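Shape matters. Shown next:

___
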Amino acid sequence: MVCVVHITSTPSGATMQRTVLIRRGFAATLRACTVVLLVAVAAMTSTGAARAAPAAPPRPVTVTPALPFPIPPTLPEFDTGFYRPAQAVVDARRPGEIIAARRVNLAYNSILPITIDAWQLSFRSTDTHGRAIPAVTTVMKPRGSSARPRPLLSYQSAEDSLGQYCRPSYVMQQASLGILAGAAETNSLFVVPIAAMEMGWAVAVTDTQGPRQAFGAGPLEGRITLDGIRAAENFAPMRLSGAATKVGMAGYSGGAIATGHAAELHRSYAPELTIVGAAEGGIPADVGAALRMASNNAGSGIIFAGAIGASREYPELADLFRRYLTPFGRGYVAAKENLCQIPTAVVLPFVNLEGMFSIPRPFDDPRARRVIDHIAMGHSVPDMPMFMLHSNPDWLVPVGPVNALVRKYCADPTAQVQYLRDNFSEHISLDLFALPLFLRFLKDRFDGVPAQRGCTTSDAGSVLLAPQLWSTLLPAIAPVILDLLGKPVGR
C-alpha cells in the first residue's frame, strides 16, 4: 500500500510531497499512514508559521546615528554591510525581522531637508525561490506624539530602475545624487510621504526590487513590500501597534507592481498584517501585453527594462536572453542595466523589441511565457478593499489587461473593488492626479469608514472633476510648502 501526502504550505509557496511505500497488513498500514499524516500536518503548521512571522520577540537592534551634513551617504553599491549583509546573518532572521537600523536625514530632491524622524531598516525577506534575501526600507513619522494609534502608509515608489544607486532609500537622503541620478518619480513625489505625515500617518517607503534590482518581478516586489511593513511595525521608535497597526498601501505604475502583488499575496504570505486598503493606478497587470504594445513605441525603453529586471530573478528568462539576443540586443541590454528611471526611458526608445532576438516571437517562447504568466497579476483575489485607477488612452501600460484583471477579481463574491477609468489623462499626467484620490481612499479606511461592498467600474471624463481630489489636495498644499521650507512635519 502507498501513502502519499501533499504539503502546499511552504515558505516558498512550492508543493512538497511525501510518499511512503508500506508492505504490511491492513491494520499496520493504517497505523503507519496515520503517522505519516501527523508528520505532514506538523510540517505544514511549522511552514505556515514561518510564513506568518512567528510572534517570538525580535532581536534588539542598535540604531546608528545619522551622518552629519554635508557628508554624503554612501552609494548602495559600496554600502554592502547594510544592503548586502552576510548570508548567514540574513538566514538567521525571520521574514520582516530587522538586521540593522540607522537614522537618516531625508531631503526633497536631496537638497531641501525635511524635518521628520526617519530611519533606514535592513531586514530579511524571501525571494520567489524561497531563499532568504536582505532588503531595505525607509521609515518615517511626523514629529511629536499622536493622540490615537498611528496608521501606516506603505508607499511603493515607481523606481523603474536597474541601478543600485536608484533605490529610494538612497536618493531620498540629503546630499545624495538625488534627481541627478534620474530617479524622477522617487524624488519629485516625495511630497506624498510628506503629505501623509501631515495627516498624522507613519510612512514606509521600501526598496521593493530586492538586492539585484529585479524591476518587473512582481511576486518578489510584493513579498518585499509586506516584509517592509513587518519591519516598520517591529521597529520600536516608530511607536506603532505591531500587527494591529492599520496599514494602507499605495503605488502608481512601477509602484503598482509592488502594491498589486502585495495585495494578492497578503492572505498567503503575511496574513497577520492589518491591511485595511490598497490603492493603485497605471497598473501593469500583464507584462506580456505591455511588451507587445511598447515595441516600436516611445515606451519600449522603460518597458523592456522591466524584462531585463525580471531576468535577474528568473534564470529561464536570463537563459533566453543569453541564447537568442542579437549583438544589437546585447548592446541594448548592456546600455540599460545600470540606469535609473529617466535615462532608461529615454535611451533608445522606439525599438522593435522582438527584432532584438534571433528567434521569431521570443515572448511566446515557453520560457518567456512561464515567467510572464508568473509575474502577471490575478493569481489570487486581494482580501482588502481596493481602489484601482487607470487611463483609457494610456500609451505605456494597456488598459485591456486591467479590465480583465478587475473582472477576474470581481468574479469572487468577496472582492471589494472600486475601479475608475479616466478618459482624458494619459499615463504620466494621471500619476499626479491619482495621488490625492489614493490618500482620500486610505484616509476613509483608516478612519473606519466602511468600504463599499462588491465591485464598481466607472468612467470619468477627467478625475480633475472629482470633488474629493480637490478637497484632499488643496488643504495639503500650504503645509507641504512650509515643510519644504523647514517647518517640522506634523506641527
Notes: The longest helix spans residues 26-51. The two ends are 72 Å apart (CA to CA). The CA atoms of residues 243 and 272 lie 6 Å apart. Residues 287-374 form a domain with the 434 Repressor (Amino-terminal Domain) fold (CATH 1.10.260.130).
